[in-house]
Design goal:
By secondary structure, this protein is of the alpha+beta class. It has 2 domains: 73 residues; 160 residues, Porin (Beta Barrel). Helix content is 31%, strand content 47%. The chain has 1 helix and 8 strands. An 8-stranded antiparallel β-barrel has the order 1-2-3-4-5-6-7-8. A hairpin with a 7-residue loop joins strand 4 and strand 5.
Amino acid sequence: MILSRALGNRLRRGMAIFVIVAFSWSAFGENSYQGQEGLRTKMRKTSRKSMVRRAHGSQANSAMTLTAREKEGRNWEFRTAPLAFLASWFTLDVAYRLSDQWSFGPSAILFNAKGPGSMLAPSYNGYAVGWNGSYHFGSVRKNSWYISAHGYYESYKLYPHAFSGHKEVTGFSGYSVIGYQWRWSRVNILSGIGPQISYQNVVERTRPLNDVEKSPVESRDVKLVPTIEFKVGFEI
């Protein structure tokens, strides 16, 4: 009886210890599995974020590279003076950029006024062709100070007003300005001031008075006057 009781007590203790160990092991395994799953989830999220960042970085670099290439390829610029349209002067400067600061190219002006002028504003009819050059103290693609020079061969008729004759003018003129450039993407505005010099041969033909025509008067004219530049350019 005593032996059987002792064996029964030991058996019950052993069963209790087994149950406790089994439960603990099950709880530990479940926690370990959950921990591993959480770690795997975090790693997957981190990997996705890294891939997204790399993709965005690659797109940004590609966009920057494309923009830089586009800008490097835009070496031509066309400029005109819109205020000169009021006097029927149509101007065009074509500038090719040799570097980030220097540009050169041909220039042309069409004087296309119709009819005689007035006492304050004479009419011009003819043309001028020449050359232009610019130097930017900063970058030609940014807001910056600049200096520019223009030289022309001119041939036009000048009509002061209806009660006189006209002048036939041929010769050379040139001007240089210092100014500032404002730029927005491909469009820019240049505004400057400086001296203008001209050397011209002038033939003055007066209007006949009482059917008596006067002989033309020929002279040479040299002028040094201030000038203002205001032009709008477009980059291609």
